[in-house]
Design a protein that fits this description.
Elements (H helix, E strand, L loop, with lengths): L13 E5 L4 H12 L3 E6 L3 H14 L6 E5 L5 H15 L2 E6 L14 H29 L2 E6 L3 H4 L5 H21 L4 E8 L13 H8 L10 H12 L8 E4 L7
Parallel strand pairs: 1-2, 1-4, 2-3, 4-5, 5-6, 6-7
The structure holds NADP nicotinamide-adenine-dinucleotide phosphate (NAP).
């Protein structure tokens, strides 16, 4: 007989989603609110999106659960330390961490400046390390943790954004696998999701329909994905204590291995 997953009701345990005010991150934060978590979402520059996300998440939180909106650069270790201290104080030790904050500035190899390289690596990859390093001691204390890193199809097949983006996302897979190996025996799983072509998130939101049709033609399903497709992959990883160190592709078959 199957047992009910302890993650169906998170019972007010704290969850952190970096970049949780828009796109994929907001979809995952909504899922966590529905599962009874207390939430902290990190955002950087888009105040209007943060305000709208706060309203939406408040409407979904179960009674008595906390919500923190944390503004700052997740790629700055001092900011991450300060944010984590606020989360611990207000919501308790973190049980679920979703490293989702990311930027994707397109540039061909020779056009990537030093600044663009550093900013992309810091935002997309270092942020995941800084946040994981902060929350792991609390996860060890409670003997439970879920860390989900939002990578990209670019980590698997190179992608089309640029070398800085592909390297940052491929780095997330190494971080995931190493962490899975070291931390499994403490009840902590680390997994990645590699989405592609999510039409209601990030750069794709404003694409004209002709470009969306071109992209759809590159997938096996003949379609683009939706935030909900990524959220389903996240929920599976949340519920799966025996799945760790994997990368789930959510890409309509655009890249297969
Ligand atoms: N959309 C896709 O098809 C797709 C495909 C593959 C991978 N991904 C990955 O999925 C993740 C989410 O993508 P998305 O399309 O949902 O992005 P999005 O809609 O552009 O949202 C990005 C989120 O990250 C936050 N953020 C950006 N830089 C940050 C920083 N330095 N510190 C803290 N927060 C920061 C943003 O905050 P502000 O709003 O305040 O700037 C926003 O909440 C990214 O890692 C992306 O690489 C997306």
């Amino acid at each position: 007989m199957s047992s009910i997953s302890p993650t169906e009701d998170l019972g007010g345990a704290a969850a952190v989603v970096t970049g949780g005010t828009r796109g994929i991150g907001l979809g995952i934060a909504e899922c966590l609110a529905g599962r009874g978590a207390s939430l902290a979402v990190v955002w950087h520059r888009n105040e209007a999106a943060a305000g709208a996300a706060e309203k939406r998440l408040r409407s979904l939180l179960r009674p008595g659960r906390g919500l923190l909106l944390l503004q700052g650069d997740a790629g700055d270790p001092a900011v991450v330390r300060a944010h984590h201290a606020r989360v611990r104080e207000a919501l308790g030790p973190v049980a679920v961490l979703v490293n989702n904050a990311g930027i994707m500035p397109p540039a061909a190899f020779e056009q990537v400046s030093d600044a663009a390289w550093e900013e992309t690596l810091r935002t997309n990859l270092s942020s995941a390390f800084y946040w994981s390093r902060e929350v792991i001691p609390g996860m060890k204390e409670r003997g439970f943790g879920r860390i989900v890193n939002i990578a990209s199809i670019a980590a698997r097949g190179g992608g089309v954004i640029g070398p800085h983006y592909a390297a940052s996302k491929a780095g997330m897979l190494g971080l995931t696998r190493y962490g899975a190996r070291e931390l499994g025996r403490f009840g902590i799983t680390l997994n990645a999701i590699a989405p592609a072509f999510i039409e209601d998130a990030g750069i794709f939101v404003d694409y004209p329909s002709e470009r969306k049709a071109e992209i759809s033609a590159r997938t096996a399903t003949g379609s683009m994905g939706r935030v909900d497709d990524v959220v389903r992959a996240f929920a599976y990883l949340l519920d799966s204590p025996f799945v760790t160190g994997v990368c789930l592709d959510v890409n309509g078959g655009a890249f297969m291995i």
